[in-house]
Design brief:
Length: about 190
């Protein structure tokens, strides 16, 4: 139980009224709309409001799911659960964004997206210090990581077993740092 005490404290702090700024969804940042986007790309975003809670620079991640009528949509694990939002909404929340391309076949990328979409509606996983592929809930980077593992793709966790900074979980920064991802786009407001 002692090893979980710091995380219980973090969760308690996360639910204090003053902490809700990072879970809103506003931001109002402006970025050029990325043009070289593909199904299975990974988005990472930085929010100064979440720096205190998420280890590493990047504070959120999602997976590019599909294009419809000229608009890209992403699947993400959000505090309200796993959902789909537009790419425009995603990039407007963060002061710095990047798109990562995964070293995997088109089939693996499509299967990763299908796995993530199959998790729609599942609740948010507040156990940020652990990860599981087939779970009943997901946090943002856990969903992206699990999607690629379930699809037979690469393990996009730079520290797949344990690290003192990220424990047994997977953080957005670890996905950014992993050797199976390459940054193809970045913009800071």
């Amino acid at each position: 139980m002692k090893r979980y005490l710091p995380f219980v404290l973090l969760l308690f702090l996360a639910f204090q009224p003053s902490a809700f700024a990072f879970s809103g969804g506003g931001g109002g940042y402006e970025h050029p709309y990325p043009e070289d986007v593909m199904v299975g790309d990974i988005l990472v975003g930085h929010s100064p409001d979440s720096d205190w809670l998420i280890p590493g620079y990047w504070t959120h991640t999602s997976l590019v799911a599909y294009e419809e009528d000229g608009e890209w949509y992403v699947v993400e694990a959000w505090f309200s659960g796993v959902r789909v939002i537009s790419l425009r909404e995603y990039i407007g929340r963060y002061d710095d964004i990047a798109i990562l391309r995964v070293s995997a076949s088109g089939e693996v990328k499509a299967n990763a997206v299908q796995f993530a979409l199959a998790q729609l509606g599942k609740p948010y996983d507040f156990a940020l210090w652990t990860k599981q592929v087939y779970g009943s809930s997901y946090y943002c980077s856990e969903l992206v990581w699990a999607a690629y593992i379930a699809a037979g793709g690469p393990d996009v966790d730079a520290h797949p077993r344990f690290s003192w900074r990220y424990l047994w979980g997977v953080a957005p920064q670890e996905i950014y740092d992993d050797g199976d991802t390459v940054q193809i786009y970045r913009h800071s407001s």
